[in-house]
Amino acid sequence: MLYKFKSKITGDVIMLQPNGRRVLEIIGKDTQDGAADKGIILPEQMLAAIAALEAAIAKEEADYKANEAAALARNENPPRSESITLRQRALPLIDMLRRCEKAGKEVVWGV
Asked: What pTM, to 2 d.p., does this model score?
């Protein structure tokens, strides 16, 4: 399954199911029992969603740096990072949310 985030202001943002679910969980949307198959992010929810995504990105990056430093302190090879980070996956959606919030338009998916 794909998540296709759509708005009247920007082009679509498409994510594979695991990545789309993760992003939706980060911004506080229910993903249980098909609840995330369709939904909406209203303009008044967008600043909080952007802040949540940016906080999750910062945490992921800090965790990676801490694990890397710990491995180097133990004279081990640093852990490999994921090939595509949360930052790379979420930035198109963050941009969409910023532009839609400014224009006062919602973001929808599954409709």
From this structure: 0.88
